Amino acid sequence: MNIKPLGDRVVIQKLEAETTTKSGILLTGTAKEQPQEAKVVAIGPGAMVEGKRVPMDVEVGNKVLYSKYAGTDVKVDGEEYIILKQDDILAIVE
Amino acid sequence: MNIKPLGDRVVIQKLEAETTTKSGILLTGTAKEQPQEAKVVAIGPGAMVEGKRVPMDVEVGNKVLYSKYAGTDVKVDGEEYIILKQDDILAIVE
Amino acid sequence: MNIKPLGDRVVIQKLEAETTTKSGILLTGTAKEQPQEAKVVAIGPGAMVEGKRVPMDVEVGNKVLYSKYAGTDVKVDGEEYIILKQDDILAIVE
Amino acid sequence: MNIKPLGDRVVIQKLEAETTTKSGILLTGTAKEQPQEAKVVAIGPGAMVEGKRVPMDVEVGNKVLYSKYAGTDVKVDGEEYIILKQDDILAIVE
Amino acid sequence: MNIKPLGDRVVIQKLEAETTTKSGILLTGTAKEQPQEAKVVAIGPGAMVEGKRVPMDVEVGNKVLYSKYAGTDVKVDGEEYIILKQDDILAIVE
Amino acid sequence: MNIKPLGDRVVIQKLEAETTTKSGILLTGTAKEQPQEAKVVAIGPGAMVEGKRVPMDVEVGNKVLYSKYAGTDVKVDGEEYIILKQDDILAIVE
Amino acid sequence: MNIKPLGDRVVIQKLEAETTTKSGILLTGTAKEQPQEAKVVAIGPGAMVEGKRVPMDVEVGNKVLYSKYAGTDVKVDGEEYIILKQDDILAIVE
């Protein structure tokens, strides 16, 4: 299925939090930190400002940090996505 | 009956949530997820910005994802519709 | 009496909700749905944006759907009207 | 005394609510509806937008409908007035 | 001491409420109405809009009506003043 | 240490409230009024509006009145300062 | 790992609060003041205003004072960072 976000929206998918710490301890339940990293899976055409499209700053495939409570959770074909405005993406992580 | 939304408003109609899961189990009551998918049935002429119409990004017939609490529920001729601003439409699903 | 709304305001009058359902059952009390349909009885000259009047999108006589809690109820010569901004009108119904 | 409102402000004075109904019954206390009609007694020079005065839409002597909770009540020389922004005037009644 | 307000701010000083009514009765305590009249004692150079000063509408010496809860009370050299934005001044009284 | 505020921010330092009244009575505790006077110790380069710096209205050394709850208290090298936006400075006192 | 903040965002890292006072007393627990100083570790390309990038006022390596509750805490590779808008940085400390 193909999701085409509108305006300056971005569709991201959470990255699985690593379940082992650097020292190799397996984390469970609440000890596992809430991941804020996600992968960009689709981007909109950009916001419309005074008749012109503002080009997007992120690209499909980027790994990003995002504001924890931003956006809307959607489930399409059994997969969970978050659709948020590009402005709720804090940074690209490389 | 013919509904002509004003400005950048869009009239959508919820799509029936599938009542069987992929594995074929019939869902009932609260186990059935709240659908966020809808079909566009009418669009406005576009917002007026500094004397010019901004063309709409969605078209009649598009299947869209929308913000769950956005818009106003209306009932016309026994059919339920939601009228919302285009900005409350998150993405087009193809 | 003549009401001339200012700016982009519109004077509407609620349409009587049909008190019989399609199947002919007479509805009473709370079973009767809150009507959101109204008829436009007067329109303002349009909002003033940067020194120019923005022409109105609705006309006197239009049947419209409006946001349930928008506007101000006024009573002039015993008749009840609602004065609201055109932006609180969702759609024209034909 | 002379009150000169600033900007797009308007000074209005409530009109006495008619204390008899059309059928001639004298109303008392809470049965008497809260009047929303007033007479314009002074107008400001108009709002200043980008260095230019926007001409006012109401004139001294106009009978107007206004938003019930808008504006500030003032008492000058024993007379009660309401000073509000022109935007809180809903319509001119003729 | 000299107070020079910034931008479109105005320094006013409350006028003593008359303590006798028109009929000559001396008022005390809460029966005395909260005065909303004040005298302008200093004005700022005007707001800065797109690189230009917007000239002020009030002058030092004007008697004005102001929004009761607007502004900040300050005490300089034992004298009480209110510093508010010109927009919180409702009207000039002459 | 050198503090360089950003944009239209200003660093001020509260002036010690005089602890004796005009009549020479020494004040203690809550009887001592909350001072709202401060001295400007550093100013930013000015706000950026449409690509241009707006020059500041206050200068280092000015004695100013400021909004009591505005700004952020910071402690640098044991000294207490308040960093606020110039717009929260009400007036210059000379 | 490389963090590239978007727009006018800045990535900072809190500076360890000195745990000894000037007089050499070791502070513990709540007696230790909440540090508001941080070091800039990455900056965005600048905000986009009407199609142009506004250059940033801070640089990587700057020691800054920031609004205590601003921004989002993120943890990348076990290191804690704060990502905030440049406007939440109060001043550069030298």
TrEMBL record, chains A, B, C, D, E, F, G:
User: Which terms are listed as keywords in the entry?
Assistant: Chaperone, Cytoplasm
Keyword presence, Membrane: no
Q: Which InterPro entries match?
A: Chaperonin_GroES (IPR020818), Chaperonin_GroES_sf (IPR037124), Chaprnonin_Cpn10_CS (IPR018369), GroES-like_sf (IPR011032)
Family annotation (CDD domains): cpn10
What does the sequence similarity comment in the record state about its family?
Answer: Belongs to the GroES chaperonin family.
How is the quaternary structure described?
Heptamer of 7 subunits arranged in a ring. Interacts with the chaperonin GroEL.
Concerning NCBIfam families, the annotation shows:
PRK00364.2-2, PRK00364.2-4, PRK00364.2-5
Identification of the protein by name:
Co-chaperonin GroES
- Species of the source: Clostridium saudiense
What does the record give as the organism's lineage? Bacteria, Bacillati, Bacillota, Clostridia, Eubacteriales
